Amino acid sequence: MAARVEAARRLQLARFEQREGLYANGQMNARDVRKFCDADETGLSLLRSAMARFGLSARSFHRVLKIARTIADLAESETIWVVRTEAASGVGCETRSACTFFSRGGLGKPAVV
C-alpha cells in the first residue's frame, strides 16, 4: 500500500507542478476541481442524487470529488469512475469492506476505502 500512496503523491505533484503552492488534491479550489476531477456522467448523476437526498452543499460536492480523485490516483486512473465517486461519498456503503474500487479495464486490485 505504501508504494501505491507514493505513486499517487507523485501523480499529484506532477499534476500541480504548474500551480505554485498546490501540491495535493485536498488543496484544490472549485476551479481546480472542475479541471482535474473528470468524473463520468453516471458518477456525477449519483453524486447529485446524494446531494439532494442528504442536503449536501456545493462544498461537500467538491470535497467528494477531491476524495474520488485521490482514490483514482491510487488506482493510477485518469478518470473518476462511478464506483470511486460512490466510495468517496459513502453512498451504498453499508460497511467499510463494501466500499471497494477496481482499476480500469476490469477487476483489478480491490482496495478498501
Structure in words:
By secondary structure, the protein is mostly helical. The protein is 53% helix and 4% strand. The protein contains five helices and two strands. Helix 3 (41-54) runs parallel beside helix 5 (82-89) and helix 4 packs across helix 5.
Give structural attributes.
113 residues; mainly alpha; 5 helices; 2 strands; globular
Number of helices: 5
Structural class: mainly alpha
Give the radius of gyration.
14 Å
Our estimate of the beta-strand percent is under 5%
The strand line-up of the biggest sheet is 1-2
Helix content class: 40-55%
Question: Would you spell out the secondary-structure blueprint of this structure?
Answer:
Blueprint: H1 2-15, H2 30-36, H3 41-54, H4 58-74, H5 82-89, E1 100-101, E2 111-112
Antiparallel strand pairs: 1-2
Offer a concise description of the structure.
The protein is mostly helical and 113 residues long. Helices cover 53% and strands 4% of the residues.
